[in-house]
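Appendix B, example 12.
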Amino acid sequence: MRKIYGIGETVYDILFKNGKPVDAVAGGSVFNGLISLGRTGADCTFITEIGDDAVGQHILSFMKENGIDSSFVSCYKGRKTAISLAYLNSQGDASYSFYKDYPGNRLDFSLPPIQENDIVAFGAYYALNPVLQEKVGHFLEYAKSRGAILYYDLNFRSNHCSEVDSLRDTFIRNYKLADIVRGSHEDLENIYGHEDFRQIYKDCISPYCSHFICTRGSRGVFVLDGTNEYSYASKQIEPVSTIGAGDNFNAGIMYGLISNSIGRKELEQADASVWKSLASCGIDFGTEACLSTSNYVSIQFASEHRLGQK
C-alpha cells in the first residue's frame, strides 16, 4: 500500500463551550487528518515535535492506537507539549490561545524512505515558520524528488496576518512544491485581503500549482484545475465543532487518492469524474468530523471506509 506522510505541529486541544471545558483531545492540523486516515487502515507516518511530559506520552500512545508510525517524532527532554485552548461559539467555530515550550534547536529527524506516488501532507504556519523553514523545505524538496504527491493546506489563521508580507516567498516555495493546494475562504481573506478564489488562483497559485481546492463552508467546494472549474455542494448540518472540518476534508481527498489508485500521472489527467469522486470523499470526511468534539472521523465511520474493502 502507498504510504502517507505528514509533517506538522502537534498540540493538545482543550475545548471550552460557554466558558467551561467540555473535552480534551490531541490535535494539530496535519495530525487530525492523519489520525482519521490511520483509522481507515492507511499506512501513515507523522513527523512532529512533543515534550517528554505526560501529555506527550499520551499523544504517542494515541498515535499508536490509531496506526500512526511515530518513528520520526522529536521528543524534547525537559520540555512540555504544546497546549491549545479552543473556545467554541454557538456555531461550533473556535478561537484559540496557544501555550508552547519549544527548545532553540528543533526538528532533527532522518529522511524517511518515501516512494513514488506516496502522499505528503503539509501546511498551516508550520510550513511557513521562519524557525523551521530550512528543515521543512529540505524535507519537502526531498519528497518531491522521490516522486511523492504533495498536498498543501494553507490553514492560515488571522493571528499571523501581520507576517504575510514577510512570508510571501515561502508561500511561493510551497506552491511550487505542491501538487494540490487547498485553502478555505478564511485563509484567502487572511493572506490576500479578499476571498475571490478565482482571481487568487489566476494571479497567485496557478503559475506554480495547477490544482487548487477552495472550501467555503456551507457555500460548497470549488476545484480549479487549469481552465476547468468544478463545484460541489456542502452537506447542511448543525455542527458540534468545526475544529477538524478542514483537516478531515484534506484526509478525505487523500483517502480518495489512495482508494481510487490516483497517482501523479492520474492526477495530471484528472477530469470531472475524478474530481467529483475526490471532492465527495473530502466532503464526507469533513462533515463527519463536525458531528462531535473529536478532531477526527469516528471509529464507526472509519470502519465503513476501511481501505482494501472495495
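Residues 27 and 229 are 32 Å apart (CA to CA). The chain has ten helices and 14 strands.
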